[in-house]
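Changelog entry

Holo records now carry the ligand SMILES as an explicit input line rather than a separate metadata file. Below, a converted record for zinc ion, shown in the new format.
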Amino acid sequence: MIVPKSLLALAPVIAGVAAQSKQVISPELSRNQIYDRIMNHMPPTQSHWDQWGSGWIFEDCANFAKERGQNPADYEVFNVHYTDCSEPWIMCRHKAAKVDQIRMIDYFGRLPVRVRQHVKHFIVSYDIGPAAGLYWGGNIALDDDSFDMYVLMHEASHALDFSALRQWGSPFSETSQWKNEWAKDSRIPTGYAGTNWVENFGEIGPIGLFDRYVPGGIGQIQPNWNQIFHQYATYQGYLGDTINYGGTCGSRMGNSQPVSMYARSAKVSAAAFGELPDVSLGSNITVIEPVNAKVVCDKTHLH
Ligand SMILES: [Zn+2]
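Structure line, unchanged by the conversion:
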């Protein structure tokens, strides 16, 4: 089931009840306790990349820019060819963002390929309002001030929640499978995990991944891990191989289309445009339907 935006908007109200009925685990872990250690256990993936021809931007990035009052022509657009996928990921970056292309490529490539394949495009910008990160329609955007592995894992967990477990429901975090396991725990991982079911899943993600990748598991930094065990074990159990390293991309979301960077009123000569970028996916790739959902992850609470 794909949840329409109107239903998603109601989620915070519903989940507010859930949030109040459980306390936050003590000690509450901070973002850097997770990302400092996990970086050494999330290997980067080899890649090469190329820039899009001048004048072109993909439609989702152009819309993202316009919604923020930014000029699409201030974005750079590039294809990232990781060695574990025959098709590149198309990314865009605002030229004024503090995070450069190399860091974007490095961090995104540290996600296992079967996690990456549930992400359509990856965007980095500056000052994206009150959000540390956004998830919408399969895309992930990060604010440059909030760019770290924790926030990326959090947003990737939204992608997995909506896209990777569709056989049980989308988002998975609103199914009875999730809620029943949540009910067995006495605590939630962070205050932000109490916002709604979707953020509950988004916040357990980095803990589930830490436990999976770092030798010794989450118990090394969270002595009371058993109070949230069912949440992170369910995250790991249902996602299974999806969150393991290795393999190749069997499926991908279809890319958004290339459009002109310039406003329709701007008279730009055809000579200003490079070659039309090819965004098609090879026949060996199964195309995953995009997800009609939007999640805004608050900067002040995601700490
Ligand atoms: Zn979130």
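Spot-checked after migration. Residues 1-17 have pLDDT under 50 and may be disordered. Residues 154, 158, 199, 202, 295, 297 surround zinc ion (CB under 6 Å).
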